[in-house]
Specification:
Layout lengths: L6 H19 L11 E5 L5 H19 L6 H12 L2 E5 L24 E5 L5 E2 L3 E8 L5 E3 L2 E3 L1 E2 L2 E7 L3 E9 L2 E9 L5 E6 L10 E9 L3 E6 L2 E2 L7 E7 L9 E5 H24 L4 H17 L2 H4 L2 H48 L5 H16 L7 H49 L6 H17 L5 H20 L2 H28 L5 H17 L8 H47 L5 H17 L5 H23 L1 H23 L23 H18 L4 H21 L1 H4 L6 H23 L12 H14 L9 H21 L5 H22 L17
Parallel strand pairs: 4-11
Antiparallel strand pairs: 1-2, 3-5, 5-9, 6-7, 6-10, 8-9, 10-11, 12-13, 13-16, 14-15, 14-17
Helix pairs in contact: 1-2, 2-3, 4-5, 4-7, 7-8, 7-9, 8-9, 9-10, 9-11, 12-13, 12-14, 14-15, 14-16, 17-18, 17-19, 21-23, 21-24, 22-23, 23-24
Length: 863
């Protein structure tokens, strides 16, 4: 809390002063039992000054009387309080004389009270049964509070308890230590009883006397509207209240000590929440961190988590979360910076440490490394840990210790080398002066250059001798160089000619740089590059410029060529992907039997192939052969589609015959449960359903046609033989079904009988005597059919109507005949012949001769 915060500072100042006064007024020796921390703002003067003076007076009186005197740290603490604006204070109930120093402001003494309850305070009045208990447990592993175990974290413990109303004791126990406080829980609100006036009463005048009593153990305040009423010790109250004429409404509000304390508690929590918001907004992060440390400590001691206002808790939580996120981010940034600094130091060490062990270390490199090591030692940045810092310093000092003698040795060697270079430069001066006797200008120029290079290598000499030697060497050099002027002039002409040739080559290369005739232009530029290599040196100072000009022109062409090639490769890859997709489609259609649709689709794919551009030359032929092979395979099959379809139909019929023949084989069942041997002649499961399905497939294949007559007849005989074998082997399975031979034979006989009667009725229509042979029931049925055919009842039926009805009945009979199941061939053939003859007679009588092979018409062959 910031000092000088008005009424709040005064209130806290008074509380601290009162606590310190206890240290003065209590007799000594007294052992400290508990400590209470307050975050306070201390104004000048006030209770602290009085407490300080009282402590001094008490100390002097005890000294004069020979009594134990309070320890000096108490007085020192009181003096320190006046000089601090924000502090954490431990107010002791008394000082233990002769037992050593008492902790000063903000200091705990774990040895004197390792276990203590910080919150709630002893004698506290609480308005809620939910109590947040916090305390200190120094060097203790476990603490039990009222029988509930509390976790100890960094020497502190906290937990929530639910207590009953009334005076309650909170006791913490750990090992041989214990601490206890007594609190009073009051959740019952005061009850107000108004004795006068009664509700709805009529009171004359504008002055109203209000009387009653308040039922509660500790009534702190009573208010009538905005007026505070004094309450007697027995809870009664009386007050005169001025009112306006008319109906009035009065509001009485009573608050006990627990409610008032809860209000103060809530107000303090609100203050802490506001301070947290301000602290979270501070730009100075260290200051914000210090304030939040104190705020969190007091917030926890007030038990805000169990008794705080939700809005206040939310406001504090938001501020705390914002600060925590900011602090965490700052901490992470600091750690990242420290890690980066450590990485840089380690990289520097990795680079510099091998230098100390190098045998070819030069003086220049050694001196530079030594300077860098000294600079690094003087400016080591913050590192992640002290161990990292100490390790880095150790390694840097080791490198420094290793480099220092080597650098000194190299300096000594350099000094000796400088003295040796004096003799070398004297020899070079003599050689330069000896060139006066050489006549060949080219040889002179060559020797001059060699001597210049040797001079540069031995240039490090003492300053005193170096100037004189340089003037001597320079004079001899100038004299020799003057004799080479003609040679240099001819060389300049040759260099100029070479420059002209290279300029011409550059111009030709620039003219070709934008060409798109890639192959031919590339060959020409390569020839220019080969010719460039045959040309000698050019004028000094022009070498780099002319070379860069020529190279830029060549690079521009080859860069464009490479880009075009890359673009073409992309197009080739796209075209290759398209053609591979077409190949996959054609290959998927190559085995299709939907001839017309597939042929049309493949032709469309062939047209699409023509629209796709080229692919890479090495892949082109392979892709074409793949596509063409798939197309040729389909169209070869397409040309043979009739033979293929015929083969498929034959294969389908053979498969049906094989399945039917397999059903005719005996099936051996598993051993029975009682251990008896299995029967070798049990029918397969679902035999009737399997046979019915096979017969349906066979009829579908017959309808599909497409098989040669001879092959079809052979397969028909095979199917009929297999079918008969199945029926003959297990007649009981098919009894009463549509596959039962006896039932089917009877159906055939019934149809034959019907058709023969119909044929006789048609034949006798011209002669009445024929009807006499028919039974009355048959004649009546024939008359009804004829009447229905003529759409008349009781009328005379004409011949055309009767013949049409007979033809329709014959067609229906023929359809029923085709649906009849199997019958043994020996019985089927005579019935089929009779049925065919009856149909033929009906057809002849109706005047519509039968056509062999006609489907569903009278006279069609019946199998």
């Amino acid at each position: 809390m910031v000092a000088g915060n008005g009424a709040r500072d005064a209130r806290h100042s008074a509380r601290i002063g009162a606590a310190l006064t206890q240290c003065v007024t209590r007799p000594a020796p007294v052992t400290a039992q508990a400590s209470v921390r307050w975050l306070v703002g201390w104004p000048e003067g006030g209770a602290s000054a009085e407490a300080l003076e009282a402590t001094k007076a008490r100390r002097s009186a005890r000294r004069q009387a020979g009594a134990p005197v309070a320890c000096d740290p108490c007085v020192t603490s009181l003096q320190a309080i006046r000089s601090l604006s924000i502090l954490s204070l431990v107010a002791l109930a008394g000082c233990a004389t002769g037992a050593g120093a008492v902790p000063g402001p903000g200091v705990d003494d774990p040895a004197s009270h390792p276990l203590a309850i910080d919150s709630p305070a002893d004698g506290a009045l609480l308005s809620s049964r939910a109590v947040h208990v916090t305390g200190r447990a120094v060097d203790l592993d476990a603490v039990t509070v009222n029988g509930v175990e509390a976790a100890v974290v960094e020497g502190h413990f906290a937990l929530d308890l639910t207590l009953a109303e009334g005076e309650q004791r909170i006791e913490a126990v750990a090992a041989d230590e214990s601490a206890a406080v007594t609190v009073r829980i009051d959740e019952t609100a005061p009850q107000i009883v108004v004795e006068s006036p009664t509700p709805g009463a009529f009171v004359p005048g504008t002055s109203l006397e209000v009387r009653g009593r308040v039922i509660d153990a500790s009534v702190a305040t009573l208010q009538l509207d905005d007026q505070t009423i004094e309450v007697a010790a027995d809870g009664r109250f009386r007050v005169t209240h001025n009112v306006e004429p008319g109906a009035i409404r009065m509001r009485l509000h009573a608050e006990d000590a627990a409610g008032k304390e809860a209000g103060r508690h809530g107000a303090r929590l609100a203050e802490l929440a506001e301070e947290a918001v301000r602290a979270a907004a501070l730009e100075d992060l260290p200051a914000a961190r210090r304030q939040f440390t104190l705020l969190r400590r007091e917030w926890a001691s007030l038990g805000a988590a169990t008794s705080g206002d939700p809005d206040v808790l939310a406001r504090y939580g938001e501020a705390d979360a914002a600060f925590t996120a900011r602090d965490r981010a700052a901490h992470e940034e600091d750690q990242r910076a420290r890690l980066e600094a450590l990485a840089k130091v380690q990289q520097f060490l990795v680079r510099i440490e091998p230098l100390a062990a190098r045998a070819d270390l030069t003086l220049k490199a050694g001196e530079r490394a030594l300077r860098e090591v000294r600079a690094a030692l003087g400016g080591i940045p913050p590192l992640p840990s002290r161990r990292d810092y100490e390790e880095s310093v150790r390694r840097l000092k080791a490198v420094q210790s290793a480099l220092t003698p080597k650098v000194q040795e190299l300096r000594d060697v350099a000094d000796w080398q400088r003295w040796a270079n004096v003799g070398i430069e004297e020899q070079l001066c003599e050689k330069m002066e000896a060139l006066e006797t050489v006549e060949n200008s080219e040889e002179i120029a060559k020797h001059v250059r060699e001597l210049q290079e040797q001079w540069r290598q031995a240039a490090d000499v003492p300053r005193a001798q170096g100037e004189a030697l340089w003037r001597r060497f320079k004079a001899a050099h100038d004299a020799a160089w003057a004799r080479c002027e003609a040679y240099f002039a001819s060389q300049a002409e040759a260099r100029a000619a070479s420059l002209a040739r290279k300029i011409a080559l550059s111009e030709r290369a620039e003219a070709l740089a934008d060409s798109t005739n890639w192959i031919q232009t590339a060959d020409e530029i390569k020839k220019l590059q080969a010719e460039w290599k045959t040309i000698g040196q050019v004028t000094r100072g022009q070498e780099k410029a002319i070379w860069e000009r020529f190279r830029a022109a060549c690079d521009r062409f080859f860069t464009r060529r490479h880009a075009d090639l890359a673009e073409r490769k992309t197009v080739w890859a796209e075209n290759l992907a398209k053609k591979e997709a077409l190949c996959a489609k054609v290959e998927a259609l190559a085995e299709s039997s939907e001839w017309d649709a597939t042929a049309a689709e493949i032709k469309r794919l062939q047209n699409e192939w023509k629209t796709i551009g080229p692919v890479k030359k090495s892949r082109s032929e392979a892709m074409w052969q793949r596509f063409r092979g798939a197309c040729d395979h389909f169209f070869t099959r397409y040309a043979q589609r009739h033979d293929i379809a015929k083969a498929e139909r034959v294969a389908a019929r053979e498969a049906i015959c094989q399945e039917l023949e397999a059903l005719a084989l005996p099936v051996v069942s598993q051993q029975s449960a009682d251990g008896s041997q299995p029967s070798a002649d049990e029918p397969p499961a679902n035999l009737a359903a399997q046979v019915r399905a096979l017969r349906g497939r066979w009829q579908a294949e017959l309808a599909a046609r497409g098989v040669d007559r001879d092959r079809a007849m052979a397969l028909d005989e095979r199917f009929a033989s297999a079918f008969a074998s199945v029926l003959a082997r297990w007649p009981a399975v098919f009894g009463g079904t549509d596959l039962d031979p006896d039932t089917n034979r009877k159906r055939m006989e019934a149809l034959v009988h019907r058709m023969e009667e119909l044929a006789r009725s048609l034949a006798g229509s011209a002669s009445g005597g024929a009807d006499a042979a028919l039974s009355p029931t048959t004649r009546l049925a024939a008359m009804l059919k004829e009447a229905l055919a003529a759409n008349t009842i009781g009328g005379k039926v004409d011949d055309d109507s009767r013949f049409r009805a007979a033809s329709e009945e014959a067609r229906q009979a023929q359809a029923s005949w085709m649906r009849i199941g199997p019958v043994p061939d020996a019985e089927r053939r005579p019935l089929a012949d009779r049925f065919q003859r009856a149909l033929r007679r009906i057809s002849d009588a109706a005047g519509a001769p039968g056509r062999p092979g006609g489907a569903g018409r009278p006279g069609a062959p019946v199998r």
